[in-house]
Structure formats: C-alpha cells, structure tokens
Amino acid sequence: MAKxxxxxxxxxxxxxxxxxxxxxxxxxQILASDGKPVREDLIPDLELVETLYRKMAQxxxxxxxxxxxxxxxxxxxxxxFGGQEASQVGSAFALERSDYLAPMYRSTAAMITHGWSxxxxxxxxxxxxxxxxxxxxxxxxxxIISIPGQYVHGAGxxxxxxxxxxxxxxxxxIGEGGTSQGDFHIAVNFASATNAPCVFIIENNGWxxxxxRAVQSKVDYLMRRAEGYGIPGYLVDGNDVLAVHHTAxxxxxxxxxxxxxxxIEQMTYRIRPxxxxxxxxxxxxxDEANDWIANRDPIxxxxxxxxxxxxxxxxxxxxxxxxxxxxxxxxxxxxxxxxAPDPRAILEYAMVNPGQNLIAQQAELERRxxxxxxxx
Length: 376
What we know:
The chain is α/β, with parallel strands linked by helices. It has helices at 46-71, 85-92, 108-113, 118-125, 129-132, 149-164, 182-194, 213-216, 225-228, 241-256, 286-295, 298-308, 314-337, 356-371; strands spanning 100-102, 170-175, 198-204, 207-208, 211-212, 233-237, 262-267. The strands form two sheets. The protein has a five-stranded parallel sheet with strand order 1-2-3-7-6, sandwiched between helices. The chain has a two-stranded antiparallel ribbon with strand order 4-5. The protein is globular and about 65 Å long.
C-alpha cells in the first residue's frame, strides 16, 4: 500500500500513552474531537491524511452496505465495525504488504486496508468458499471467531518470521472482552519471552457483546497489563486516526528493529450492533451511541481537520462518494456473478490429515450429493 513520508523532524517524539512514561494516563491524541491539532509537531504529510480519510469513508460505506445486504438475506450474519474505522485503518496502514495480519471477526476494515478485496469480503460473509481462500500473495490469517485465538496465531506468525529472518512483523486485533480469556495472556507472554515481532492491539469499543467494559476488569486501562510482561504498552484515542497510525507505526518499526512486541489499547466505540443478529436496545441506550456519533465520530474528526487545512471541500466529498459507490457496485456485481460452490468445499482444508470423523462426514456428504442428482 502507498506510504507518505512525514514532514516533521519530531516524528519519533515520545508521546503520552506509554505505560512506562506516566502514571496519570490519558489517551494519546494528535487531533481533538473538533479536528483541531493538539500535537502540531506530529501532523504527518497531508497526502497521507487524505488517504486515511478516504479509506475510513470507504469502510463506513461498506459497513453500512454489508448490514443492508444481511437484512436482505444477501449476506450471512455479519459483525459490524462502524465507529472503529480509525482504529482499524490507522493501525493496519502502518504495515507493509508482506507483514502478517491475524484478524478477529470484526477486523474487516483492517483486512481490506491490508489488501483484501471488497469482493472477497462479500464472499466470505456469504459463506462462499471463495471468500475463505485468502490470496497466496496476501499474508492474512483466517478470521478467528473463537476469541482470542488470533492472538496466539499472531504471536506464532511473528516468531516464525523472526526465525526465518524475513524482517516481517505480525499485527493482531482483539476486543477488550477478549483480554479476559486465557489465550490473551498466553500469546502476549509467549511473544514477550521469545521477543517475537508482534503488535498486539486491543480495540476497546466499550462492549463485549452486551457486557460493559467496567464489569470485566478492575484495572482502569487494559494496556497496563503490558508491564507484567515486560513490554511497552500504549494508550491511544482510537477515534483519532493520526494518533492511531503514529502509535502503530512506532510499534511496527520497533518490532521490525528487533525490539520485540508491544500492546496498544485503542479507546473507541462500537456505534453499530455487535452483529446483524444483535439488539442493542437490550443493553444500552440510543442516546449513548448517538452521543459518540455526534461528538466523537472518527471520520468527522479527520474531515474537519482537512477542511481547516483547506484540503477538502464539498466537491471533493461528492467525487469521493461517487467513486466509493462505483467500486462497491462493481465488487457486488462480481460477487453476485460468482458460480455456486461445489458442496464438497465446505469440508476442504478442515484438516491436513483428515481424521475418522471428517472422513465419515465426507462420505455422508457424497451420499447426499448423489441423492440430489450428483455433483453440483
């Protein structure tokens, strides 16, 4: 993906958010909620800012379209990420194309930012095998539904890259609820002990399905757990794409330089339901989500900054939206035109060496295919 150089000589400046720097933690910011800079010295090249804004706008559009497709029964159960665009786009954009990404089920925006196609995303959420098979030239691991297995996979990919001497790093995502699971601690401890080049990201969106953050842990910020594993921990305003990208870039660069893993907590909010099968009114008020949309929306924040810098206007906005709509329409048409899968595909790649249970399932599937007139 395209990268833009920074224009400031203070790009490596220490910033608030490091667990080793201050006990009075506040999420690190570069842009305030109104789009005004709070760290002028860390504003990157404005071309990069525009690129990040365009990608975030595209992701919000896709998230809403995917939700609509699910309600039309043209997509399966889908995990929305609306409100977390800065968190995913800003961090994933810090990776090189050759790096590894170990996603969770809400990481669609990060995956597309890293190179996954919109068409493949549609196919995946439709349950089509074409969506399961990630391109060979794209180092994205399979989406993990059982939280937090992707943290373990990310740590393993990072150690593998280190042992091979490839200079690749791994980045992996988890929600704040996943930090209560044992695999979270196993993965972070393993990566720390082996000095594996892995960037662990906690997307703290306030809710583990219907369980609020305050119920899960007594600690004020989850990134404090980094100290127990002897690695850097960072606290970031996850709705500030510039702060997210700056922090992720530092963590990625450190990992690539052999300094080992780090843990980043990105404070954001899930303005959409947990999935298309969720009913948010059962556990939170509409006013809560509306307040975040009105006052802390990550896309509005960076757009306001670009407008203040005279880099954005209504004409450019209209042209961008038209481009996004056209790209989505093309991807959807391609997905709709894809042939129905061979039913045997559902059991492909389940195991390298199939066990007796899988062999029995394959035999039963063949019997059912035969009963319906042979291969599809």
